[in-house]
């Protein structure tokens, strides 16, 4: 079973917004990064945003200015606010935690803990 619990997702028209939540309240020790990934049918899972324990953020170029990653580390909770959604944003979204030491934040194989995924569909 997935160790992170995800909430949110759904279907919206182009230009719409969604907010995703990822929780792991029972985890005592976590890595320095948490991140969001997405996977479209038949394509590789790709990193879209990450946040360090100190709050510094990283984004995939295609979502800069539209998506905002944030966290409440006291609650071990991660958020992704998604605005100005477009059809190419459609896919299954996953949260991830426990980045390997020296790992690249955008690589899925660098993370050890994952949520169950949730579908985001953007269509008119």
Protein architecture, described:
β4 and β5 (46-52) form a beta hairpin. This protein is 0% helix and 48% strand. It has strands at residues 5-7, 10-12, 18-23, 33-39, 46-52, 57-59, 67-72, 77-82, 91-99, 111-114, 118-122. It is mostly beta strands. The strands form two sheets. Strands 2, 4, 5, 6, 9, 10 and 11 form a seven-stranded mixed sheet that branches. Strands 1-3-8-7 form a four-stranded antiparallel sheet, with no helix packed on it. It is built from no helices and eleven strands. The mean pLDDT is 92.
List the helices and strands and how they pair.
Layout: E1 5-7, E2 10-12, E3 18-23, E4 33-39, E5 46-52, E6 57-59, E7 67-72, E8 77-82, E9 91-99, E10 111-114, E11 118-122
Parallel strand pairs: 2-11
Antiparallel strand pairs: 1-3, 3-8, 4-5, 4-9, 5-6, 7-8, 9-10, 9-11
In short:
The chain has 124 residues and is an all-beta fold. The chain has strands spanning 5-7, 10-12, 18-23, 33-39, 46-52, 57-59, 67-72, 77-82, 91-99, 111-114, 118-122.
Terminal Cα span: 34 Å
- Fraction in helix: under 10%
Evaluate the radius of gyration. 13 Å
Q: Tell me the total number of β-strands.
A: 11
SS element count, helices: 0
What is the average per-residue confidence, as pLDDT, rounded to a whole number? 92
Show unreliable segments.
none
Query: What proportion strand?
Result: over 45%
SSE pattern: EEEEEEEEEEE
* Morphology call: globular
User: Structural class, from helix and strand content?
Assistant: mainly beta
What is the multimeric organization of the chains shown?
single chain
Largest sheet: 7 strands, mixed
């Amino acid at each position: 079973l997935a160790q992170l619990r995800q909430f949110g997702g759904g279907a919206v028209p182009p230009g719409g917004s969604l907010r995703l939540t990822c929780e792991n309240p029972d985890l005592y020790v976590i890595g320095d990064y948490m991140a969001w990934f997405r996977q479209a049918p038949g394509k590789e899972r790709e990193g879209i945003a990450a946040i360090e324990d100190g709050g510094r953020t990283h984004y995939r170029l295609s979502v800069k200015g539209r998506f905002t990653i944030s966290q409440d580390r006291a609650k071990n909770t991660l958020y992704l606010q998604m605005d100005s959604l477009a059809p190419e944003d459609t896919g299954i979204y996953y949260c991830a935690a426990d980045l390997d030491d020296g790992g690249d934040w955008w690589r899925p194989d660098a993370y050890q803990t994952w949520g169950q995924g949730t579908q985001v569909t953007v269509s008119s």
